[in-house]
Design goal:
By secondary structure, this protein is mostly helical. The chain has helices at residues 10-40, 45-48, 50-73, 75-91, 93-99, 102-129, 136-163, 171-188, 211-218, 222-243, 245-251, 257-282, 288-308, 312-325, 328-337, 344-351, 356-371, 379-401. It starts with 9 loop residues before the first helix and ends with a helix.
């Protein structure tokens, strides 16, 4: 542990890691809401994809303001503001259920998305910077493992509640979550998080640059541009598969809704979490770029297996995607911000716009599923993983020629 997180940073690392669990839980609930709203509100798969689209629109629109907030007022205030928005959005599910208004539910999810992007923009670079640059990807994968734990628990807890009782509503779980998040916000107003000053490197941006100059100079860094595209493509793949997992599992009678939500939690997302922990250990011994390349190859293979629709082999391909995509987000993130120096907060805000790719991917997959089949729809994540593979190969070449 001391190799990854220095002793004097362990407490801040534990506190910031708790946030990874919170947004993992909140984002995983969306995958259950898709199927629930299709039935309770009598909407199509394509219409229910607005759940992801609205949430990640909040990410896209709030990401840059989030970077400005934490640049000017620090990580702690960014965290507290994010938690308060998260809480307000969750509690809006109470009037949403009273009026059974899909539009009000979407408004609540948009506010939650705005809160979550503040948390992620603060926590991801903060966790990466709590130690030596060489172990940043390893450290971020470790923190992101708790994101995986939240992803595991959300579908099984909320899915079991919603699918085991036809009269169950979404207001209760969101109210409990909203109150818990508000308490967390109050706790973070009382704790102190040390501000981290990133070390300078060859592509560092001057400390006295304004926001506009910082953004302009960031876009001149090729590794940052390519990393941003790779992260967007990863989000297209990862979020769209999660969003339609239950639809895929129930499409041909493979599973019931309640069984699918449990398998999503303990099977797919459990595998995801284990793989992320394993990835953190592996990357303490093997270069992150090489691990990313191997994982990208295997996710491309897994998603293409699903498109072939050949029984258990295709279903195995689905779980291959979960196992080998696990390290992608934290690894791409850590590699991409490694060359931006003191502008890491603004760089992080741009990277946290990428979950909008989840909305794009979910809509495309839903459209293909309605047009053809759930298996054919997996061409969308296959394309996303291929882009990640291209970035991994570029990163290896850059390191080799450096």
């Amino acid at each position: 542990m001391s190799r990854t997180v220095p002793k004097h940073y362990i407490i801040p690392f534990i506190l910031i890691t708790s946030l990874f669990f919170m947004w993992g839980f909140a984002r995983a609930i969306l995958d259950v809401l898709n199927k629930h709203f299709q039935e309770s509100l009598s909407i199509s798969i394509t219409q229910s994809s607005l759940i992801q689209a609205t949430t990640y629109l909040g990410y896209f629109l709030m990401a840059l303001p989030a970077g400005i907030i934490i640049t000017r007022w620090g990580y702690r205030r960014g965290v507290v503001t994010g938690l308060l928005l998260f809480s307000i959005g969750s509690l809006l599910f109470i009037p949403g259920e009273f009026f059974m208004s899909f539009e009000l539910f979407l408004t609540a999810l948009f506010i939650i998305g705005c809160g979550l992007v503040l948390l992620e923009t603060s926590a991801n670079p903060y966790a990466a910077e709590l130690g030596e640059p060489a172990t940043a990807a390893c450290r971020l994968n470790l923190a992101q493992s708790f994101n995986g734990l939240g992803c595991i628990l959300a579908p099984v807890i909320v899915g079991s509640f919603l699918f085991s009782n036809e009269n169950a509503g979404v207001a209760l779980p969101y109210t409990i979550m909203g109150v818990a998040v508000f308490i967390a916000a109050m706790i973070f107003t009382k704790v102190r998080l040390p501000e981290i000053t990133p070390s300078s490197d060859s592509e560092d941006i001057p400390e006295d640059s304004g926001i506009t100059d910082t953004i302009r100079q960031l876009w001149q860094i090729k590794k940052f541009r390519y990393g941003l595209i790779a992260l967007l493509c990863y989000e297209i793949s990862e979020i769209s598969i999660n969003s339609l997992f239950i639809n895929y599992a129930t499409a041909d009678g493979w599973m019931t809704r309640s069984t699918a939500s449990i398998v999503l939690s303990f099977g797919a997302l459990g595998l995801f979490m284990i793989a992320r922990v394993a990835g953190s250990w592996i990357m303490s011994r093997i270069a992150a770029e090489k691990v990313l390349t191997a994982c990208a190859i295997l996710t491309v293979a897994g998603s293409l297996l699903v498109t072939l629709n050949i029984g258990w082999l295709s279903r195995s391909g689905l779980f291959m995607c979960y196992a080998f995509e696990a390290v992608m987000f934290p690894t791409i993130f850590a590699i991409t911000i490694s060359g931006v120096g003191r502008s890491v907060k603004i760089a992080s805000s741009f990277l946290m716009m990428t979950p909008i790719g989840g909305a794009i991917g979910t809509i495309l997959m839903s459209w293909l599923a309605d047009l053809s089949s759930m298996s054919t729809a997996f061409l969308v994540p296959a394309a996303g993983y291929t882009s990640v593979l291209a970035y991994a190969c570029y990163s290896i070449r850059k390191n080799t020629t450096a």
